[in-house]
Amino acid sequence: MFKTAFHLPEQRHSGPLTDSKHLRTYAVLVTILALLSTGFTVGILLWDNPTELFSDGWWLIVGMRRDSLLTIGLVALCHAVATIAFQTAVNNRIITPGIMGFGSLYTLIQTGTVFLFGAAGVNALVGIGPFFAQMAAMMLLATLLYTWLLSGKFSNVHIMLLVGVVLGGTLGSLSNFMQRMLEPSTFDVLTARLFGNISNARTEYLPYTVPIALAVVVIFWMWAPKLNVMALGRTTAQNLGLNHKAELIKILALVSVLISLATALVGPMMFLGFLCAMLAYQFGDTYSHRLLFPLGALAGYTVLSGSYFILRHVWDAGGAVTVIVELIGGAVFLYFILRKGRL
User: Transmembrane ranges (predicted)?
Assistant: First the structure.
C-alpha cells in the first residue's frame, strides 16, 4: 500500500532552522529569554522604590533606573554582536575581541591619568570629549593591528591575534608598574574605575553611543549573508567568490567600534561577549547570523539585567554585578575549553 504525502516523515532541509522541531525550540528559547528579561526589567524599574507611587520622586527614581537599563541593553548588544562577528571572522569560537587588548589599553589610560594627576585625574576622564578620546584610542590601536598585519603579502590572522595578546600583556604590565607606585587612597579610587560597572556610564553619553551602536549593528545585520559564508572558512569563502581579506578587515574594524564603545562606557568585561555568543551557539544551533545576533543579545541582556536586579535590589551589592557576570562567564569558558566534543 502506497503512503500518501500525509504519511511521509517530515523531511529535513538545509535552511537555518532544519525542521519544525528546531523552529519550535528556537521560538520557545526566545520566548523564555524575552519573558525573563521583561520580568527583570520591570523588577529593576519598580522594585523597592521608597517614594510614593507615581509621585515626582517616584518618577525620578524610575528615570534613573531606566538609564541603567539602557546601558545594560547597549552593553549586551555590543558585546554579543561584536563577539559573534569576531569569532566568525577569525573562524574560532574560543577567542573574543578582548584578545586585541581593548581592556588593557583602557586600564592603561585610566592608570596613566591617575598616575600623572592624582585622584583628581579620574574626573579629567569624565565628559563627552574624554569618552570619545578613549574610544578613539582603542579603535586606533585595533585599526593599526588590522591594517599592518592583514594587508601584507604574508598576512595571517593568527599572527595578528598573537601580537594582540603580547601587546595586551605589555600594556597590562605597564599599568601594574604605575599602580604599584600610587598611594593607597589613590589606588582605591582607581580600582573603582577599572572594574566594569554599569554605574560608570553617564547619562549624557547615551544620546551619542546608542545611535553609533545601532548603526553598526544594522550594518552587521545587512552583512549577515557574508558572515554565513565566512563561517565556512577562508578557502571555501574564496571559492564562493568572497574577498576574504577585505571582508575580514571591514568586519574587524566594526567590531573594534562596538567593543571600544562598550569598554569606554562601562569598563572592560572580558567574558560577557563569550557568554552571549556561546549561549547563542549552543541553544540556537544554527549557522544564520540573523538568528544568532538577536539570541546572543537577548541572552546577554537577560544575564546582565538578572544579575543587576538580584545583586543590587535583593542583596544590595550593586558593585558586584559585573564581577558575578565575569565569574559566570569565566566558568562557562573553562567548561567549554576543558570538555570534549564540538563547541
Answer: 26-47, 68-88, 94-119, 131-151, 157-177, 205-224, 251-279, 291-311, 317-338
Q: Has residue 16 been placed in a domain?
A: no
Q: Are 303 and 34 in contact (CB under 8 A)?
A: no
- 196 in Cβ contact with 271 (< 8 Å): no
Q: For 210-233, b where at least 16 C-beta lie within 10 A, e where not — what string? A: bebbeebbeebeebbebbbbbbee
- Dihedral through CA 10, CA 11, CA 15, CA 21, nearest 10? 30
Count of other CB atoms within 10 angstroms of residue 130 = 15
Asked if 103 and 264 touch (Cβ cutoff 8 Å), the reply is no
Residue 39 lies in a domain: yes
The span from the CA of 198 to the CA of 177, in Å, is 27
Q: How many angstroms separate the Cα of 196 from the Cα of each of 11, 51, 262, 323? A: 48, 29, 10, 8
Q: What is the pLDDT of residue 235?
A: 85
d(CA 139, CA 104): 13
Burial of 325 from C-beta contacts in 10 A (0-12 / 13-18 / 19+): buried
Residue 293, pLDDT > 70, answer yes
C-alpha cell at position 239: 571559492
What is the mean predicted confidence (pLDDT) over 25-53? 85
How many domains does the structure of the chain reveal?
A: 1
What lies within 8 Å, CB to CB, of 125 at 6+ separation is 109, 110, 113, 131, 134, 193
pTM over 0.85? The answer is yes
| Rounded Cα distance, 69 and 61, in Å | 12
Residue spans of alpha helices (H) in 91-151: 102-117, 121-124, 128-150
Domain with residue 83: its CATH number is: 1.10.3470.10
Predicted confidence (pLDDT) per residue in 137-190, tens digit: 888 877 777 777 666 665 677 777 788 788 888 888 888 888 888 888 888 778
Residue 189 lies in a domain: yes
Cα-Cα-Cα-Cα torsion 305, 311, 315, 318, nearest 10 degrees, comes to -110
Enumerate residues 6+ apart whose C-beta is below 8 A from 91.
Answer: 230, 231, 233, 234
Domain for residue 261, yes or no?
Answer: yes
